[in-house]
Each structure stands twice: as structure tokens, then as C-alpha cells.
Design goal:
Blueprint lengths: L1 H6 L3 H7 L24 E4 L8 E4 L6 E5 L1 H7 L15 E2 L10 E4 L6 E4 L6 E2 L2 H9 L5 E4 H9 L4 E3 L10 E5 L6 H22 L4 H8 L1
Length: 217
């Protein structure tokens, strides 16, 4: 997801700015060792970073969003608490590294206590894009990082529920094993910091009228 959302849309611009550089992307959703893998940098969610690395945030704070299509909610109703998910078809993601099922993450607003819910449903996938497509086809609910579903929310294809139960958390970080960064790594870091500011601006921008109308319905 980090490559698809944060790197791939901007690679042409980055490589045009630095024509002597080449980029190799290595996709791995596990906690890989970037030195052993021969990589210069890694990108990882902030809460999964080792304390021994040097890291810079390349997204604003993020949230997990629970979403489904308007048609799904019309047929099955809308959950008002995480406990209500037991009555819904929840599409589940299986991590490629380790093979464990992703437990949906929530925060109790009154106690500030974080907790997880093990959901059930008719589809398990190890492809987050496949999970999103299934939700768009009306199969059920998914929990996904908010910026990955924002466009579908704005265009009315998906609607969000349980937002009060989803607290912000540290987003994606670019990390390196040492403060001694080669020039090519500094160039990528500075470029992604530019894009982080653009992403922050888009997050804070007003939603389009169509999105507002969708929520009112």
C-alpha cells in the first residue's frame, strides 16, 4: 500500500528531477531487515518501527476507516459500535508475512483504551486491493487506512461508519539504519516530505458537495 499510494504516483516526477537515479521497489508487508535485503531505505507504519532506526514521517496522522457501499448498508443496516460487527459480513485481510488474520483495531473514546475485534465473513484475502474491490462490489465491510479509501468516500461509492471508535495513529515513516544518509537517500526523503505536505493539505480540504449529500442520505 505504501508503494502504491505514496511512491508510484510520484515516481515519474522524482526521476525527472533526479535523472541520474534509478529506483528498485521491494514489496514486503513483513518486518524485514532493510540492510539484509540490500535496501537503502524502508517505509513502515510508525508503531512498527524499531527504536534503533532513524525515521521521518512521510504522511500525516492516519486513521483506520470501516467502510462499505451504500447498497450494503441499505440491505443490512449500519453498525453503531464495534460489537455490532458480529452481525455483519466483514472482509478480512490475511498478512503475507506470518499468515495471521488482521484484527480490526478500535479505541474506546471514554476510556481511551485500544482494543481489537476478530471479525468474520465470507471472504479472506491477502491482497488489500482485492479487499477494497470486494467492498466496492457490495460484498461487505472492510477496515482500511483512511487515505486508501478517501477517493471512494468523496465520490459516494463507499460510506464510513464507526468513526468515533477510530483514533488517529502515527502514519507511514521513511526509515534508515543510520543518520549518515547518502545524497540519494536525502533526495528521496526531501521529496517525500514535499508530498506529505500535499497530502496533509488534501486531508484538510473540504469534501465535495456530492460527498456531503451522500452522508446526509
Amino acid at each position: 500500500m505504501a508503494a502504491r499510494e505514496l511512491l508510484e504516483p510520484h515516481l515519474a516526477e522524482f526521476l525527472a528531477r533526479y535523472p541520474k537515479l534509478a529506483v528498485e521497489l521491494v514489496m514486503d508487508d513483513g518486518l524485514s531487515n532493510i540492510i539484509a535485503a540490500g535496501c537503502d531505505v524502508g517505509i513502515r507504519i510508525g508503531e512498527r518501527l524499531s527504536e534503533h532506526v532513524v525515521a521521518v514521517p512521510i504522511t500525516p496522522m492516519l486513521e483506520m476507516a470501516v467502510v462499505a457501499t451504500p447498497a450494503y448498508f441499505a440491505r443490512h443496516g449500519r453498525p453503531s459500535t464495534p460489537a455490532d460487527l458480529a452481525r455483519h459480513n466483514c472482509i478480512t485481510y490475511r498478512q503475507n508475512s506470518g499468515g495471521s488474520l488482521f484484527a480490526w483495531e478500535f479505541t474506546d473514546a471514554s476510556s481511551k483504551r485500544d482494543f481489537t475485534v476478530e471479525t468474520r465473513g465470507s471472504l479472506i484475502t491477502n491482497d488489500d486491493e482485492g479487499m477494497l474491490r470486494a467492498a466496492l462490489h457490495g460484498l461487505g465491510l472492510i477496515q482500511h487506512i483512511d487515505f486508501a479509501v478517501r477517493r471512494h468516500l468523496e465520490e459516494g461509492r463507499l460510506e464510513r461508519v464507526l468513526k468515533p471508535w477510530c483514533s488517529p495513529f502515527p502514519g507511514f515513516y521513511l526509515y534508515v539504519p543510520s543518520r549518515e544518509m547518502p545524497l540519494k537517500v536525502r533526495a528521496l526523503r526531501d521529496f517525500l516530505l514535499e508530498k506529505r505536505d500535499d497530502l496533509k493539505s488534501s486531508v484538510n480540504a473540504p469534501r465535495r458537495a456530492r460527498s456531503s449529500q451522500s452522508r446526509r442520505r
